[in-house]
Amino acid sequence: MLELKHLRCIQAIATSSSLKSAAEKLFITDSALSHQLKDLEQRIGESLVIRKQQPPRLTASGQTLLQLAQQVLPLIKHTEQQLNSPQQRLNLALDCHACFQWLVPSLRQFQQQWPSVNSHFCHDRDYQGLPLLLAGEADLLLSSEFIPQAQLCYQALFEYEMVLIASPQQPFSPNQPIVAADLQQHTLISYPVAKQRLDVYNYLLKPQALEPAQWKYADNPATLVQMVAANMGVAAMPYWAVENYLQQQLIQQHSFEPAIWRPMYAVYRNDADNPQLLERFVQLIKQYALSHLAGCRKLPKEP
C-alpha cells in the first residue's frame, strides 16, 4: 500500500541532483531515504530509480508514481492549510426586505473572489439586524438607519428613492407627485412591521399627522407587488425594487412630495475579525449599486 512518504520520496528524487540532496530535502538521512526507496520498490515489485546516473533518473514506473505525487501532494497541502486556518465567515443581517437586485449580484462576485468564506443570511423575527450585530451573530448589517455607537463602524453605500406604486386602474395623475393627504383615501400595503419603521410613515404621513384609510400587510416584496397590481392597495417601495414590474406595465409609479431619498449603510463592529474582508464586500456592493441600479445615487456625505 502506498503512503504519503513514498510519494514525497519519489518527488524529492525527481527534483534533486542526487539521492543525498533528495534526503536533505526530506530532512532524513541518506540511509533512511535508501530504506524508504527499497521498501517502495519491494511493494511495487519493480525498480523505480536508475541509481547509476547523476542526477538519478526515474524508470517508467517511477514516472507513473511521480505523476500521482504531483496530483495528490498539492491537494494534501491545500487541505492541511484550510484545516489549520480559522474558518472565515460572512453572516449578513438585513433591515431591507427587497434588496436582491443589488445584494445577490454583489455576493456572487464576492464568493468568486473569496471562495473559502462561508456566507450566511441571519435575521430575527422582526428583521431587526442591529441586535444580531451587537451580539456577534452577524458580521455585517445592511440598514437605512444610522444609530451611532462607539463600537460600530458605518460605511455609506448609496441612497435610493422611495416611490409610490399603484395599480394602473388607480386614477392618479401621471405627472402629479403624491402628497400625504392623497393616502388618506387609500389602503396602504406594507411589510408586517411597526409603522414607525416605515419610511412612508416617518417621512410623509407622520409630519402631517395623517393615516391611510387602511393598512394591509405582505410578508415579502413579490406578494406586496402582486397585491398592488391586483388593486388591493398602494405601497411605498424603492424604485430599483419595482423597475421590472413597471416595464411590464403591471403597476404605475409616482414620486412623493417631498421626495423621499433614503440612505443605505453597511455596518460592522470595530473589533471585527477580518475588517479587510468586510471592506471588500462593501466596495463590491457600492460599485454594483451605483453602476446598475435605477433610482440610486451616491450619498452626498458620509455619516
TrEMBL record:
Pfam families found in the cross-reference section: HTH_1 (PF00126), LysR_substrate (PF03466)
Stretches assigned to the HTH lysR-type domain: 2-59
PROSITE patterns (alphabetical): HTH_LYSR
InterPro entries: LysR_HTH_N (IPR000847), LysR_subst-bd (IPR005119), WH-like_DNA-bd_sf (IPR036388), WH_DNA-bd_sf (IPR036390)
Record flagged with keyword Endoplasmic reticulum: no
Keyword annotations: DNA-binding, Transcription, Transcription regulation
Domain of life: Bacteria
Similarity-based family: Belongs to the LysR transcriptional regulatory family.
Protein name (database record): XRE family transcriptional regulator
The organism's taxonomic lineage, starting at the top: Bacteria, Pseudomonadati, Pseudomonadota, Gammaproteobacteria, Alteromonadales
